[in-house]
Design a protein that fits this description.
Length: about 625
């Protein structure tokens, strides 16, 4: 019978794992995406956490999801809807089925669909499939809990520990469905549980049981699937999240600049993983300090910068509010500092585990006084490395704090990343004092070309100086309340930022004759690019300009935005980037597409909205 089961080749597939927040769906999804990246597939992931610390078991609010889009070539988004949905309990099926395609294969644990489970999930009857209009022929109904208990009956594990392995059975079943090599899964588990080898072996045993279950009974599916990788650039690849890529970018920048890396931080969702990752790399000379609050995290980084380190601080939107006074100190002292804002849903504590782009105006203007800072927005999980590296380079070479905007979507999401070669990365040359300044150095003497001041490290003989929060004389560095001097200093600080050279914004698609130009910034790149490509496949002339450098804007910004008859600015806020562009480009009046849902854009909805705009032009 096994020989009769067809193996179909696919270009792409979307799988969504879902269950209680304690069911290990994030781990199962992470292993499956890592294995897929290892064999050369393009991947894009979207972990969708509940906001509850631990909701009641089986409740609708406690469902945790992990969606992964796997492709033979490059993948830009986690996908609008899934082809395979794993629902470990009734609540998961109730809340996650809306993310499944109409013909999706659904894998459920029938042991978690008892009367009490259905009641918690607010089903009215025991015919839960009928209530939701789900075709039973598309459902792989498997008693996962019972089978895992049988599999580990002789393991010596207690019942609670046994139940934690159910995610591995579901993973094994999905691996069978997509012809994944279990050796790669075993390698992952051996690495993860290196200090607990018996736990690794028990989990591997359950994965194999899930795989064998699918193989032996064919799990009610007509075929299994294989996604063959297309040509990929040679190199070493890994599955990496945006937060880890951000951490690696800072480490690489410190190495390139010949400096020690210091991170002063305070834990906050969804930025904490940057602190966790950097704390693992003491062997690279990285110093991490978990401070007592947000402002001290930033202030400690400023102290490290004054002492000559590459300094960074990481947080999310609420933490940026709390750091703002210290950030202003870095502005007036003109010290290099990388400030990472992993944006999340607001206002206040808002939606801690969800993603938005609502901190843009706060990053640009959310400080007292004239307080200009460069702002960079990463485009994807893998681009977080380049964005962090370039933010550090900008900070060190122009003596300025720099804000790096990421968000929960790309920070927790992952993609296949080609490891860079250090020798191929751009050089970083901190703007140090010069020998001829010895004995006559003043802290606000500037490079006439860039307007950047010169960085003197405490202890350098002949470069004694004082920095602080009070305004200083532009010539002597002494405290000054002179109105004309303050006016000069405000203009100098703004001019320094405005003079920073950034790459031109690139236009892709029908760049020469587009009827509609789509404009976005940061993490929406993959969704907007996919929408553009779908529109072009329908015969529309469409182009995309995605901004990574927000302040200063690329020099060709006005030229690009005024070139096209119709422009739409699409962003996950109520129009912050559109307002900023209107303020900086005379006569720019774009269409706007705004959502603040805490979820990534849906490509099909973008396409529909943009088609309506194209129809308005006809």
């Amino acid at each position: 019978m096994a020989e009769k089961l067809e193996v179909k080749e696919l270009d792409q597939v979307v799988v969504r794992f879902s269950g209680d927040s304690g069911d290990g769906m994030q781990l199962a999804g992470n292993i499956f995406s890592t294995v897929s990246a290892t064999v050369g597939n393009g991947i894009s992931t979207f972990p969708d956490y509940p906001a509850d610390i631990r909701a009641p078991q089986g409740s609708l609010t406690g469902v945790s999801g992990f969606q992964v889009h796997i492709g033979a070539g490059r993948v830009f988004t986690p996908g609008d809807k899934c082809d395979v949905l794993v629902a470990m309990n009734a609540a998961a099926l109730k809340t996650q089925y809306r993310y499944a395609k109409s013909q999706a294969t659904i894998i459920i644990d029938t042991d978690s669909f008892g009367a009490k489970d259905l009641e918690k999930a607010q089903f009215a009857t025991d015919d839960y499939l009928g209530e939701m209009g789900i075709d039973a022929d598309r459902v792989v109904a498997c008693p996962i809990t019972s089978m895992v208990k049988d599999c580990l009956a002789d393991s010596g594990m207690d019942n609670k520990s046994v139940l934690k392995c159910r995610n591995m059975f579901a993973l094994g079943l999905v691996c069978w469905l997509f012809n994944r090599d279990l050796t790669l899964v075993a390698n992952f588990l051996h690495d993860k549980f290196a200090k607990k080898p018996q736990i690794a072996e028990n989990n591997i045993k359950v994965v194999e049981a899930g795989y064998n279950y699918g193989h032996n009974v064919h799990a009610s599916v007509p075929a299994t699937y294989r996604i063959e990788s297309k040509h990929k650039e040679k190199g070493r690849y890994m599955d990496i999240t945006g937060n880890k890529a951000t951490a690696y970018g800072l480490i690489a920048a410190a190495e390139k600049a010949g400096l020690q890396l210091f991170l002063g931080s305070y834990p906050i969702t969804p930025a904490t993983d940057i602190l966790h990752e950097l704390s693992k790399h003491k062997s690279c000379g990285v110093i991490t300090v978990q401070c007592e609050d947000e402002i001290s995290g930033c202030a400690s980084a400023i102290g490290a910068s004054f002492a000559g380190a590459l300094a960074a601080t990481s947080t999310s939107g609420p933490g940026i509010c709390l750091k703002s006074e210290a950030m202003n100190l870095a502005v007036i002292d003109e010290l290099p500092l990388v400030i990472i804002d992993v944006q999340r849903g607001g206002p206040s504590t808002g939606l801690p585990t969800k993603s938005e782009q609502t901190d843009l105006l706060q990053a640009l203007y959310g400080r007292n006084g004239e307080s200009p800072m460069p702002v960079i927005a990463a485009l994807s999980p893998t681009d977080c490395f380049d964005a962090a590296y370039n933010a550090a380079k900008m900070a060190l070479e122009h003596l300025t704090p720099v804000i790096l905007l990421t968000d929960a979507f790309i920070a927790n999401g992952s993609a296949a990343w080609k490891l860079p070669v250090m020798e191929e990365l751009d050089s970083i040359a901190p703007h140090y004092v010069r020998p001829e300044q010895k004995g006559k150095y003043t802290p606000y003497e500037r490079d006439p070309e860039t307007m950047a001041r010169y960085w003197a490290i405490p202890g350098q003989e002949g470069y004694t100086h004082i920095l602080g929060g009070l305004e200083k004389d532009s010539n002597t560095g002494a405290i000054s309340t002179d109105p004309d001097n303050h006016n000069v200093m405000c203009h100098l600080r703004a001019e320094k930022v405005a003079k920073i050279a950034v790459p031109d914004v690139d236009v892709v698609g029908d760049r020469d004759d587009a009827e509609l130009l789509i404009v976005g910034f940061g993490s929406t790149y993959g969704h907007l690019y996919s929408a553009m490509e779908e529109l072009r496949s329908k015969g529309h002339k469409v182009a995309l300009a995605q901004f990574k450098y927000i302040n200063p804007l690329p020099k060709n910004t006005s030229e690009v935005l005024k070139k096209y008859g119709k422009v739409v600015v699409a962003e996950q806020n109520l129009g912050q980037f559109a307002s900023y562009l209107r303020a900086n480009v005379d006569g720019f009046v774009p269409y706007q597409y705004n959502e603040v849902k805490g979820q990534p854009f849906v490509v099909s909805e973008l396409v529909e909205a943009f088609e309506d705009m194209l129809a308005d032009m006809a």
